[in-house]
Amino acid sequence: MTGNKQQTTENSKGQLKLLSDRIHKLNQEEWDAFSKIWTPFTARRKEIITRSGERERYLYFVLDGIQRVYYHDEYGREATLVFTYAPSFGGVLDSMLNDQVSKYNYEALSKSEFLRASFSDLNDLMLRHQGVRSIIMTGVSGALAGVLERLAELQCFSSEEKFKK
User: Fold this and answer.
1) Beta-bridge partner residues of 67
2) What's this model's pTM, rounded to 2 decimal places?
3) pLDDT (tens digit per residue) in 42-85
4) Please, which residues bridge with residue 134 across strands?
5) Neighbouring residues of 2: CB distance < 8 A, sequence distance ≥ 6
6) Under a CB-based contact definition with an 8 Å cutoff, are residues 106 and 49 in contact?
């Protein structure tokens, strides 16, 4: 790895550490194991990161850009379920956690940068380290809260009210 790439990866992991420390402070052994499983990933604007019909194999930590998880039906209609942006976790979480085919797409709306960890590596760590499990479960709970908030907006607010929020 070149010096600049290594420095960029370390800076990215620093952002991950800031978020993880706000959720649950890991001891050094836990942090070393947790930080080791994350690798850089980029997506172009409008790139589908995870397609419906595929299994979500990664948890993404968003460093830059805006993404969405959306449903696309057989009539061509779309429903955006949630937006993700820095610093947060992203991906099609129900597919990943349940190891099932996704019903949803995960799309980069703008050029996006991430760290990503395979769910198999992450799951191994969650089984061994309570602190890692706490971070992931809190992050996933935050994503669920975002989905519920979006659902309430769609069902209760006018277009003007949604724009003002």
Assistant:
1) 84, 108
2) 0.87
3) 999 999 999 999 999 999 999 999 999 999 999 999 999 989 99
4) none
5) none
6) yes
Domain that holds residue 139: 3-164
Both ends of the chain: CA-CA distance in Å? 43
Domain count, the chain: 1
Cβ contact 135:23 at 8 Å: yes
**What CATH number has the domain bearing residue 159?**
2.60.120.10
Structure tokens at 73: 């039906």
Cβ atoms 129, 33 nearer than 8 A = yes
d(CA 125, CA 24): 15
Helices and strands in the chain: count of H runs, count of E runs = 6, 8
**Rounded CA gap, 104 and 88, in Å?**
19
